[in-house]
Design a protein that fits this description.
mainly alpha, 12 helices
Length: 209
């Protein structure tokens, strides 16, 4: 109740008292993690979320938030391990799978990344981020038709997705469809006027006409 009322100090005292009465109270450790994260104390958040997840290895939200904060703290390998533990539980957390995919891309596991992005989309077909990430993967492999389908799906799910419009512009430019490139770069720039890459490529496309 105190946490919901934004009385963070009082909430922390109650959660600490609950843990003093029962040190295995995973939910109280989790809430201390949320308090720490709300105050940008990443290391304390990692400690509390980690305790909650260790006490209850099926506590998906604890594991998810632990992995988020580990990655934020530069501990990407540890974050990857936690995301993979969540994946092994079988109950798919879409955002966790998308983040797992992004980490796998960064660490050079492209096939594993595709599997994670696909799982995220299966769990939530309206989630635009994994569709966009699958589009990026296809684009990097010059699979322009497939990439276009993924970016279009991301935009269907999130019409104001400037980055997806920008990537459609790049595909159009790469396939010498300058009118299509201009249209997509313009949409991206209109949606995000500080999007310098969209503005730059829009100007280049106009110069090529």
């Amino acid at each position: 109740k105190a946490y919901k009322a934004n009385q963070l100090e009082e909430a922390g005292e109650w959660f600490t008292q609950a843990i003093a009465a029962d040190s295995n109270y995973a939910e109280a450790h989790y809430m201390l993690g949320k308090l720490a994260a709300d105050q940008n104390d990443v290391e304390a958040a990692i400690e509390s979320y980690g305790t909650a997840f260790a006490l209850n290895p099926t506590y998906i939200e604890a594991g998810f938030n632990l992995a988020l904060n580990l990655a934020k703290n530069g501990q990407e390998e540890n974050a990857l391990t936690i995301y993979e533990k969540l994946e092994a539980l079988g109950t798919i957390h879409p955002e966790a799978m998308n983040n797992l995919g992004a980490l796998r891309i960064k660490l050079g596991d492209d096939d594993g990344a595709r599997r994670a992005f696909s799982k995220a989309l299966i769990a939530d077909p309206t989630y635009s981020a994994p569709a966009y990430n699958l589009g990026l993967d296809a684009y990097r492999n010059k699979q322009f038709k497939e990439a276009k389908q993924w970016f279009s799906q991301a935009i269907t799910n999130e019409p104001n997705y400037a980055e997806a419009h920008y990537m459609l512009g790049k595909i159009a430019s790469d396939t010498t469809d300058l009118e299509g490139a201009i249209a997509e770069y313009q949409k991206a720039f209109d949606l995000k006027p500080d999007y310098s890459a969209a503005g730059y490529n829009l100007a280049l496309a106009f110069d090529r006409i």
